[in-house]
Design a protein that fits this description.
The chain is mostly helical. The protein folds into two domains: 39 residues, no CATH class; 60 residues, no CATH class. It is built from four helices and no strands. The mean pLDDT is 87.
């Protein structure tokens, strides 16, 4: 089965970009076997693509009184980094390891809420 890490592996191998970034892309199957066309498909023959709608943000899925998971820490930290790289006046996150879910959600609203309006609380 192919995963997003298959893209990484395929790019690395096709253009000799070096060794694996992680064990996951080292073990991912290469996509080269599915690229079998001798020439690209004409745009008029491309399939119609219909993306799935983005689900509503459900705050109830966040354990508000618990410490953050490693993934949640990465999301909150990445949001702060993104905000600062865009020169958004966002507060620094001093100790991400001590944040609860409620505090992390508030930090996300402060740092990237302007980019992701569904993070904002309904009026």
């Amino acid at each position: 089965m192919h995963h997003h890490t298959s893209v990484i592996r395929t790019l690395r191998e096709r253009w000799d970009l070096g060794g694996p970034l992680t064990q996951r892309d080292a073990e991912a199957p290469d996509l080269a076997l599915i690229f079998t066309r001798d020439e690209p498909r004409r745009p008029e023959d491309w399939p119609d693509v219909h993306p799935q709608p983005v689900p509503e943000f459900d705050e109830s899925l966040i354990p508000l009184d618990k410490p953050l998971s490693p993934l949640a820490k990465a999301i909150v930290g990445g949001g702060a980094t993104l905000a600062h790289s865009l020169d958004h006046d966002a507060p620094e996150i001093d100790d991400i390891d001590s944040l609860t879910g409620a505090e992390a959600l508030q930090r996300l609203r402060e740092t990237v809420g302007h980019l992701f309006p569904l993070l904002q609380k309904p009026a």
